[in-house]
Design goal:
This protein is α/β, with parallel strands linked by helices. It has two domains: 2-71 and 94-177, Rossmann fold; 186-297 and 340-359, Argininosuccinate synthetase, chain A, domain 2 (Alpha-Beta Complex), CATH 3.90.1260.10. It is 41% helix and 19% strand. The chain has 14 helices and 14 strands. The chain has helices at residues 16-28, 50-56, 68-82, 97-112, 127-138, 156-166, 203-206, 242-255, 280-296, 299-317, 324-336, 367-370, 382-390, 392-403, and strands at residues 7-11, 33-40, 61-66, 116-118, 143-145, 179-182, 187-190, 221-228, 231-235, 238-239, 260-266, 272-278, 342-349, 352-359. A five-stranded parallel beta sheet has the order 3-2-1-4-5, with helices on both faces. The chain has a five-stranded antiparallel beta sheet with strand order 10-9-8-13-14, with helices on one face. A hairpin with a 5-residue loop joins strand 11 and strand 12 (272-278). Helix 8 (242-255) packs across helix 9 (280-296). The protein is elongated and about 85 Å long. The relative contact order is 0.12.
């Protein structure tokens, strides 16, 4: 099998896992060519020196693809419009970054005539599923190499030992060896002291996208987000492209301690895992979007959408982005967003988000109907007949029970 594989495309982040995979592939697939592919989804400084590192450790070439706009427009915004949160808290930062990266890796692998695609996901995690389901969606016959499922290395400490033995440069030490995933939407932290849920996170050591609520300014900050059909298009009246918009909201949210969550979640493979997530700009967007929907969605549509958002989140978390059901749910969501246009002003204060005002040309809120004062449009006597009909099943059941006592 190894002799049949002459060209491998590796999903390459330059982190600990993928850094040692290049020499490992060269050792275990003699004579093979390794092509590294890195998807830029907003890792920023993590991309520095990536090309030099990949080539020095054995890659024949490296692609660094700027996927930020596609990531935001085609994956982040559809998920945000759906209101999808995995288990009610997780804003899916790692989950929806995998399909956009894997899709581009498949495209390059096919163009390069590769025999296999390799990734650095562990056999315990969700990412192996997300990568491989995307590969199957676009290249169903492509061979997949997952070193973590077959090599002798058992821990991140042993990975560091292997890197040292192979002369692979590392930016981490054993003491700072958190497992991290960073993109323009979020930053996750797992491992080390976080593996015990009894330990309070050392926020002063791990936070990178912002500050703790305690360290945030004592004065609130205000931000206004404008939406067109559910898509954020402006901040404080300034029209921005998706990348610039996310960068601006991340900065503002980070400065005010927004979007820090400590979660114990249920992984797809069955185990529970604990992680700390930073999602400053994303948390602002979710809050603003949800507020605007309270004004623009009718009751039944809103309640149905809330039920389906749970399923949408599961599909994203489970790596099932490229499936008929996810596409169908997105079509439903897009229909619900036809009138989700308007502006939401939020107050940000020490980790809290408080809605200040909501306006929309498509508002379903009628002050004339909702007022506690006198009105000419709502006949309160109409409620009597409605209650009698709405409560008819209860009345019939009560009479039956009384008759049969």
């Amino acid at each position: 099998m190894a002799n049949e594989i002459k060209k491998i495309v590796l999903a390459y982040s330059g982190g600990l896992d993928t850094s040692i995979i290049i020499p490992w592939l060269k050792d275990n697939y003699p004579g093979c060519e390794v092509i590294a592919v890195s998807g830029n989804v907003g890792q920023a400084d993590e991309l520095e020196g990536l090309e030099e590192k990949a080539l020095k450790t054995g890659a024949s070439k490296i692609y660094i693809e700027d996927l930020r706009r596609e990531f935001i427009e085609d994956y982040i915004f559809p998920t945000m419009k759906a209101g999808a949160k995995y288990e009610g808290k997780y804003l899916l930062g790692t989950s929806f970054a995998r399909p956009v990266i894997a899709k581009r890796i498949v495209e390059i692998a096919l163009a390069e005539g590769a025999d296999a695609i390799a990734h650095g996901c562990t056999g315990k995690g969700n990412d192996q599923v997300r990568f491989e389901l995307t590969i199957k969606a676009f290249a169903p016959d492509m061979k997949i190499i997952a070193p973590w499922r077959i090599w002798d290395i058992k821990s991140r400490d042993e990975e560091i030992d292997y890197a040292i033995a192979k002369g692979v440069p590392l930016k981490i030490s054993r003491e700072t060896n958190y497992s991290k995933d960073k993109n323009i939407w979020h930053l996750s932290h797992e491992g080390l002291d976080l593996e015990d849920p009894a330990n309070e996170p050392q926020y002063d050591k791990i936070l990178e996208m912002g500050v703790t609520p305690e360290a945030a300014p004592d004065k609130p900050a205000y931000v206004t987000v404008s939406f067109e059909k559910g898509v954020p298009v402006a901040v404080d009246g300034e029209k921005l492209g998706p990348v610039e918009l996310m960068e601006k909201l991340n900065k503002l949210g980070g400065e005010n301690g927004i979007g820090i969550v400590d979660i114990v979640e249920n992984r797809l493979v069955g185990m529970k895992s604990r992680g700390v997530y930073e999602t400053p700009g994303g948390t602002i967007l979710y809050s603003a979007h949800e507020a605007l929907e309270t004004l623009t969605l009718d009751r039944d549509t809103m309640h149905t959408k809330q039920m389906l958002s749970h399923k949408f989140a599961e599909l994203v978390y489970y790596g099932q982005w490229f499936t008929p059901l996810r596409e169908a749910l997105s079509a439903f969501v897009d229909k619900t967003q036809e009138y989700v246009t308007g502006e939401v002003k939020l107050k940000l204060y020490k980790g809290n988000i408080i809605t200040s005002s909501i306006t929309s040309p498509y508002s379903l809120y009628s002050e004339d109907i909702a007022t506690f004062g006198a009105d000419e449009v709502y006949n309160q006597k109409d409620a009597e007949g409605f209650i009698n009909l709405f409560g008819l099943p209860i009345t019939v059941a009560a009479r039956m029970r009384r008759k049969n006592k």
